[in-house]
């Protein structure tokens, strides 16, 4: 072999060695990118991709659009540097409509996870959230539970936490309130289906067994309650608890109740009376009592920031049109804020690291300082509210 051939071969080997080393470097970079769970770092800033599958149309669109409003306002606030504990974090939100349909929610989850998105917020009902979870879990993703209350959510994925209260917590809070009134009789008026029937069963199991309890079920989309009201006028229960799954039913029920002139104590199951529902009821929520873990009048720094952010950004977001700050908005805003705070603290968007960080710390959110149980469920602290005109105020009776 000639000297020129030897040199050429050595040069070629040098090129190949450089390529191999470069390939090793790219492989390490790709692994790092995968571990960062849909994020990019630029000069110390972590830009994280969030996915949101919610009901912008269909039966639960009232709740879903409020959720979408809350998430988008939170993203704008975080990206503008207006939120506490989110230094070095930028968010990129992908919002898709599940049409209030589980099958569509599953398709949406496939679409978003195929784009590399692993961090999820939002979801306005348990059926759609649970339909998306197997796909999100298979992709190694994390979910903050939306406003779902199903106990099944906490076992539907490896990396889950839930900001919203669950059905067991809600039912215990209602039972405690009912027991505190020392009634002789209570009537539950609930929509048929897993949510309504499950809630009734749970509250009944928790209330004082000496209380005479009766249940009246209506259709999931019923909005005419004349027959139910007529029966209540005759039976005159001391307390009536209503449990419906959508805001249209809740508003229709309160209007029919107001027109009846009934004097029983009317209690809305948690989630059945928020600020936007009270406003939509046009005064029919006046005197209606509810218990919940969030209200717009809470006095803390995170909630003040939330209210300021809604004023600053709500007008530019389509899903915020006609909305007010209520529990749907507040709890979805809180999910985005929690995600950003955890990313900032963990310096990562890896789902496993984020869940570990969330469980290990106390978080300042619009509902107050919150901690999580080992299974990922938030420790909900309840406040009692009452409708006043078209708003909610703290109940002191």
Can you put this structure into words, describing what you see?
The protein is an alpha/beta fold and 397 residues long. It folds into two domains: 198 residues, Response regulator (Rossmann fold); 102 residues, Rossmann fold (3-Layer(aba) Sandwich), CATH 3.40.50. Helix content is 45%, strand content 18%. It is built from twelve helices and 15 strands. The strands form three sheets. A seven-stranded mixed beta sheet has the order 8-7-9-10-11-14-15. Strands 1, 2, 3, 4, 5 and 6 form a six-stranded mixed beta sheet that branches. α5 packs across α6 and α11 crosses α12. The chain is globular, with a radius of gyration of 25 Å. The N terminus is likely disordered.
Strand proportion, as a percent range, falls in 15-25%
The percent of residues in helical segments reads 40-55%
Shape: globular
CATH superfamily of the largest domain: Response regulator
Give me the strand/helix succession.
Answer: HEEHEHEHEEHEHEHEHEHEHHHEEEE
The structural domain count equals 2
Q: Give average pLDDT, whole number.
A: 89
Strand order of the largest sheet: 8-7-9-10-11-14-15
Q: What is Rg?
A: 25 Å
Compute the separation of the termini in Å.
101 Å
Could you say what the CATH topology of the largest domain is called? Rossmann fold
Number of helices: 12
Tell me the layout of helices and strands.
Blueprint: H1 3-35, E1 39-42, E2 45-54, H2 61-79, E3 89-97, H3 102-114, E4 119-121, H4 126-138, E5 142-143, E6 159-160, H5 167-181, E7 185-191, H6 194-206, E8 212-218, H7 226-235, E9 239-243, H8 247-260, E10 265-268, H9 275-280, E11 289-292, H10 301-313, H11 327-346, H12 351-360, E12 363-365, E13 368-370, E14 383-388, E15 391-394
Parallel strand pairs: 2-3, 2-4, 4-5, 5-6, 7-8, 7-9, 9-10, 10-11
Antiparallel strand pairs: 1-2, 11-14, 12-13, 14-15
């Amino acid at each position: 072999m000639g000297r020129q051939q030897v040199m050429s071969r050595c040069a070629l080997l040098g090129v190949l060695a450089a390529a191999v080393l470069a390939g090793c470097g790219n492989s390490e970079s790709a692994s790092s990118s995968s571990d960062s769970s849909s994020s990019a770092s630029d000069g110390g800033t972590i830009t994280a991709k969030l996915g949101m599958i919610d009901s912008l149309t269909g039966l639960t669109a009232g709740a879903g659009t409020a959720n979408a409003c809350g998430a988008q306002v939170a993203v704008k606030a975080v990206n503008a540097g207006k939120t506490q504990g989110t230094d070095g974090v930028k968010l990129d939100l992908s919002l898709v409509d599940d049409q209030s349909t589980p099958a569509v929610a599953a398709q949406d989850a496939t679409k978003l996870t195929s784009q590399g998105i692993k961090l999820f917020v939002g979801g306005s009902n348990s059926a759609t959230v649970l339909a998306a979870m197997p796909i999100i879990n298979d992709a190694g993703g994390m979910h903050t539970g939306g406003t779902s209350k199903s106990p099944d959510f906490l076992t539907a994925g490896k990396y889950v936490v839930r900001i919203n209260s669950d059905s067991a917590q809600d039912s215990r809070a209602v039972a405690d309130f009912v027991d505190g009134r020392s009634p002789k009789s209570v009537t539950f008026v609930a929509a048929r289906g897993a949510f309504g029937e499950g809630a009734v069963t749970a509250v009944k199991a928790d209330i004082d067994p000496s209380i005479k309890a009766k249940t009246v079920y209506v259709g999931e989309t019923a909005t005419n309650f004349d027959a139910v009201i007529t029966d209540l006028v005759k039976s005159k229960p001391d307390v009536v608890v209503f449990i419906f799954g959508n805001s249209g039913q809740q508003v229709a029920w309160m209007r029919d109740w107001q027109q009846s002139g009934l004097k029983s104590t009317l209690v809305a199951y948690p989630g059945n009376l928020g600020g936007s529902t009270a406003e939509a009821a046009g005064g029919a929520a006046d005197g209606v009592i509810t218990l919940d873990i969030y209200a717009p009048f809470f006095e803390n720094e995170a909630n003040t920031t939330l209210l300021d952010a809604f004023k600053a950004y709500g007008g530019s977001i389509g899903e915020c049109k006609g909305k007010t700050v209520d529990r749907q908005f507040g709890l979805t805003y809180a999910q985005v804020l929690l995600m950003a705070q955890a990313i900032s603290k963990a310096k990562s968007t890896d789902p496993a690291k984020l869940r570990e960080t969330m469980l290990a710390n106390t978080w300042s959110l619009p509902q107050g300082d919150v901690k999580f149980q080992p299974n990922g469920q938030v420790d909900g602290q309840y406040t009692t509210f009452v409708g006043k005109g078209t708003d909610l105020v703290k109940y002191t009776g």
